[in-house]
Amino acid sequence: MRPFAVFAFCGIAAFTQAIPAERMRRVEAAVEAERSRQGVAGMTAAVAVRGVTKWVGAFGRADLENDIPVKTVTVFRTGSLAKPMTAAAALHLWERGKLDLDAPVQKYVPSFPEKPWRISVRMLLGHLGGIRHYRGEEIDSARHFRDVVEPLRFFSADSLAHPPRTKYLYSSYGYNLAGAAVEAAAGVPFLDYLRENVLNAAGMFATRDDNAWEIVPNRTRWYTKSKDGRLINAPLADTSNKVPGGGMLTTAEDLLRFAAAWEQEKLLKRATMQMQTERQKLADGTLTGYGLGWNVSPVAGKNAVSHSGSQQGCKTILAMFPETKTTVVVLTNSDYAEPAKFVEVILKALETPSNMSRVNGVGRVVTGPN
């Protein structure tokens, strides 16, 4: 498999280290205009160049009922942005010889029933294991789980959707199973290993599990739209049923830190990162658009290493653009938002001169490392 060119320049001039404040104000204006067009309740967005944070902006409301504005420190649900974090934890163990990516997953999770075909952690990280996704009202589960193993009961007894590596089937449940394997291989609870070896290593101290029972400072409320288009509270959902696949909270700046740590080899070795961004291959040789925890398909028409997230009250995206060494993060509290469109308008504002004035958002331009 030909690796995705994560680090190569391809003849497109990279943005300079010092992005002028006036240009970032254009970004802020463009984001606010797009937020108004989409009707997003609240959001944060952030830009980094070569791993250095250049701008973080906050827009709209974190709590409409109490008129609380979004701040740059507001924490949002990640949705499936938890997946590259889980993949980083798994590959961190693999580099240390503690997790065999190609062994049957039952080596680590013996309670998971045997299937007619072998399923490995590598397959799970690439969505090739044949594990199904949500069914019926499972996505709206309000039951609280105390670990990553118990939620496996949702799907563990089910037949596979198809033999492994014969189709690409996106599956948060597959990532739940991978997270259980990480926990067993590490010998400590999944969240403890993730926190110590990924989150803390990247300086992501505001990132944690989306625990519905705990008081989490700066956590936003969640919003959706009714069938007639009214803005309403999103359905209740306890994401403890899918922590490795989509049950985390984070900030825009923390995700920039995650991207920077990944790019700068603070989490994984360069060879592992290249392996992670190789498009996975089906048994018939067909390449997918997914690696091991990362999408490796274009975003906003540009080559990107990215992931997005979507669940009750959130739509999110983290996109790294290797040709310009630029990273863009968008987190929203509205599950009807179009985060990729925000990425598009941010990139356009960075590239296109304009005399747009500053809008009434909450943002700051960062002129040096922070």
CATH topology: Beta-lactamase
- Could you describe the largest sheet, including whether it forms a barrel? 7 strands, antiparallel
> Regions with pLDDT < 50 over 5+ consecutive residues?
1-17, 354-360, 365-370
Mean pLDDT: 90
**Global shape:** globular
Strand content: 15-25%
| CATH C-level | Alpha Beta
Helix content: 25-40%
CATH architecture heading: 3-Layer(aba) Sandwich
How far the N terminus sits from the C terminus, by CA atoms, comes to 37 Å
Number of helices: 9
The secondary-structure element order is HEEEEHHHHEEEHEHHEEEHE
The total number of structural domains is 1
Number of strands: 12
Brief description of this entry?
The chain is an alpha+beta fold. The chain is 27% helix and 16% strand. The longest helix has 18 residues, at 21-38.
Can you characterise this structure?
The chain has 370 residues and is of the alpha+beta class. It has one domain: Beta-lactamase, CATH 3.40.710.10. It has 9 helices and 12 strands. It has helices at residues 21-38, 82-95, 121-125, 172-186, 190-202, 243-246, 252-263, 270-276, 339-351, and strands at residues 42-49, 52-63, 68-69, 76-77, 208-209, 223-225, 231-233, 248-250, 305-311, 314-321, 326-332, 362-365. The strands form 3 sheets. Strands 1, 2, 3, 9, 10, 11 and 12 form a 7-stranded antiparallel β-sheet that branches. Strands 4-8-5 form a 3-stranded antiparallel β-sheet. A hairpin with a 2-residue loop joins strand 1 (42-49) and strand 2 (52-63). The protein is globular. The two termini are 37 Å apart. 51% of the residues are buried. Residues 1-17, 354-360 and 365-370 have low confidence and may be disordered.
